[in-house]
UniProtKB/TrEMBL annotation:
<dbReference type="InterPro" id="IPR036259">
    <property type="entry name" value="MFS_trans_sf"/>
</dbReference>
<keyword id="KW-0325">Glycoprotein</keyword>
<dbReference type="Pfam" id="PF07690">
    <property type="entry name" value="MFS_1"/>
</dbReference>
<keyword id="KW-0813">Transport</keyword>
<keyword id="KW-0812">Transmembrane</keyword>
<dbReference type="GO" id="GO:0015137">
    <property type="term" value="F:citrate transmembrane transporter activity"/>
</dbReference>
<feature type="transmembrane region" description="Helical">
    <location>
        <begin position="106"/>
        <end position="125"/>
    </location>
</feature>
<dbReference type="GO" id="GO:0140115">
    <property type="term" value="P:export across plasma membrane"/>
</dbReference>
<feature type="transmembrane region" description="Helical">
    <location>
        <begin position="498"/>
        <end position="518"/>
    </location>
</feature>
<feature type="transmembrane region" description="Helical">
    <location>
        <begin position="197"/>
        <end position="216"/>
    </location>
</feature>
<feature type="transmembrane region" description="Helical">
    <location>
        <begin position="161"/>
        <end position="185"/>
    </location>
</feature>
<protein>
    <submittedName>
        <fullName>Major facilitator superfamily domain-containing protein</fullName>
    </submittedName>
</protein>
<feature type="transmembrane region" description="Helical">
    <location>
        <begin position="295"/>
        <end position="320"/>
    </location>
</feature>
<keyword id="KW-1133">Transmembrane helix</keyword>
<feature type="transmembrane region" description="Helical">
    <location>
        <begin position="430"/>
        <end position="451"/>
    </location>
</feature>
<keyword id="KW-0472">Membrane</keyword>
<dbReference type="InterPro" id="IPR011701">
    <property type="entry name" value="MFS"/>
</dbReference>
Length: 531
């Protein structure tokens, strides 16, 4: 018989309570101390009564490792549109302001409304994709984006209201691609490889903030601001065509592990991906999830804590990027607009590096914890352990596997944010704040990658919905930061402004330990309530 999740929960609960009364209650219990009492029980899930090896289940997905990389690459290309569409528009704001005969503040309202819809729309598209599939929703999003860009390229300068409306529609199409891509990763990957795939996926996400302003500035200066939207229209149309031809449906309630054929809307015409569909074993579909509002996920404390941590770090980082142009123009007056646009590459490059290396590191540490469990469970040579049985067990310390390094990462992030402010206050050489920006990008992306991966680990069948929740928290806090950063800079100056932002990070840091300490209990309580 398999190990009882309730028995494991009670065992670990009693150990944690005992540890809390002991002398070492200052931090989380040692990993071996936490899991040792249940290791022998875990072995029963993969070994028969005679102790001999039991056949391991068929692979989680029919897609080969290379095919998974290609699927995630396609999803990453689509996810690029969310930040890219937001940032490519920024350099053209002064020109659009003059053409529409509106103040910069009123044109900035189009940015605010874009961010609002950027947070709200994934709640709609993500929920639909968890029910009706990733492929049709991804295609619908990109078509919506492409059509909205045509409208923006042709909008008359006398119709300011239409500019706002079309920017909202543009956000509706572009923003949800991140949530849909995260759902795809949850569909086809196992936990021990998920971090690396999220690293690749986030390359597309973080390319937008660094490349968007550079491309937008060049287009606006050379061809006019309308060329930005024609460029986005062509880019999104080409991407949507590529996804239509190549991207397979991955939602497990529709295609299972990828071996089940579905209707024409779920079929990709060019079958480069998924040619190896003939696998042994029954091909059973899990039941389709009933419609549930993603907002219900906020009631789960293990989810809310992660969302708040990630949202706060994102908002602070947005405070750095949103004020970059204004501060650098003041501190380094010899820079022109093109030079300032290139300065965004520092933090963007850091985010790219953090996305790649944090994903690989997370996968390596996850496998280390899993392999340690396997080695400790093998009490004799006749027994073998299925790694997937350990990963699926409710007692697996997934919170520690994903978050163990984040307290140090957040500490470095906080120190760099504070140092960045005082470097600008002191007007040091421009190389110093750019280097600090790079480190801020690396650490912020590490936090984002770890928390996003853990969220999908906890709810793999609702990857799009949980990512939509993550998106609305990040965008809400980010929009709030954009609205207050300039008044704070005026009131406090550069140095003390970033001390305040660093203080926000200090306040949320203890929540990492709260998640690692209490997350397993909250997760088990939710699992039992859903039985």
């Amino acid at each position: 018989m398999g190990i009882s999740g309730r028995h494991l929960y009670r065992t670990i609960s009693s150990m944690l309570e005992a540890g809390a009364d002991g002398e070492q209650s200052a931090g989380p219990l040692d990993f071996e101390q936490l899991v040792s009492p249940v290791l022998s029980s875990i072995s029963k899930t993969t070994a028969g009564d005679n102790g001999h090896h039991v056949a391991i289940d068929k692979p989680y997905s029919v897609y080969t490792h290379k095919e998974k990389w290609l699927i995630v690459f396609l999803a990453s290309c689509a996810a690029n549109f969310s930040p890219f569409t937001a940032n490519i528009y920024l350099p053209a704001i002064p020109v659009i302001s003059r053409d529409f005969h509106k103040s910069v503040e009123l044109i900035n309202l189009t940015v605010t409304m874009f961010m609002v819809m950027q947070g709200i729309s994934p709640m709609f598209w993500g929920t639909l994709s968890d029910r009706w599939g990733r492929r049709p929703m991804m295609f619908a999003c990109l078509v919506t984006l492409s059509l909205s860009c045509v409208g923006l390229a042709l909008v008359p300068t006398s119709a300011y209201w239409l500019l706002i409306l079309l920017r909202c529609l543009q956000a509706t199409g572009s923003a949800s691609t991140i949530a849909l891509g995260a759902g795809i990763i949850g569909d086809i990957t196992t936990p021990d490889e998920r971090g690396g795939f999220f690293g690749l996926f986030n390359l597309g996400v973080v390319a937008g903030p660094s490349l968007g302003p550079v491309i937008g500035g060049a287009l606006a200066q050379g061809l006019g601001w309308r060329s930005i939207f024609w460029f986005l229209c062509i880019f999104s149309a080409v991407c949507s065509l590529g996804l239509f031809l190549l991207l397979p449906e991955t939602l497990r309630s529709i295609v299972g592990d990828g071996s089940i054929s579905a209707g024409w809307i779920y079929t990709h015409p060019i079958s480069i991906i998924g040619r190896h569909r003939n696998v042994e074993g029954p091909n059973e579909l899990p039941p389709r999830k009933p419609f549930k509002s993603p907002l219900l996920m906020f009631i789960y404390p293990e989810v809310f804590v992660l969302l708040f941590i990630n949202g706060t770090i994102y908002a602070v980082m947005y405070g750095v990027t949103a004020s970059l142009s204004v501060i650098f123009e003041k501190v380094y007056p010899y820079l022109n607009q093109t030079d300032i646009g290139l300065c965004f590459l520092a933090i963007g490059g850091g985010m790219l590096a953090g996305s790649v290396f944090s994903g690989r590191f997370m996968d390596a540490y996850y496998r280390k914890i899993r392999d340690d469990l396997i080695r400790q469970t093998r009490t004799d040579s006749e027994k073998d352990i299925d790694p997937r049985a350990i990963e699926k067990d409710p007692s697996f310390p997934i919170e520690k596997a994903r978050l163990h390094i984040l307290p140090w990462v957040v500490s470095v992030f906080t120190a760099c944010v504070i140092g960045y402010g005082w470097a600008l206050e002191s007007k040091v050489t421009i190389a110093v704040p750019l280097i600090i920006q790079f480190i801020i990008g690396v650490t912020a992306m590490t936090v984002s990658n770890a928390t996003q991966t853990l969220l999908v680990d906890m709810m793999p069948n609702q990857g799009s919905s949980i990512t939509a929740c993550n998106n609305i928290v990040r965008c809400s806090l980010g929009a709030g930061m954009v609205s207050i950063i300039n008044p704070i800079l005026v009131a406090l100056g550069d140095g003390w402004t970033y001390v305040v932002l660093g203080g926000f990070c200090v306040l949320v840091s203890p929540l990492l330990y709260v998640e690692m300490r209490w997350g397993p209990f909250w997760r088990e309580r939710r699992r039992r309530a859903q039985l």
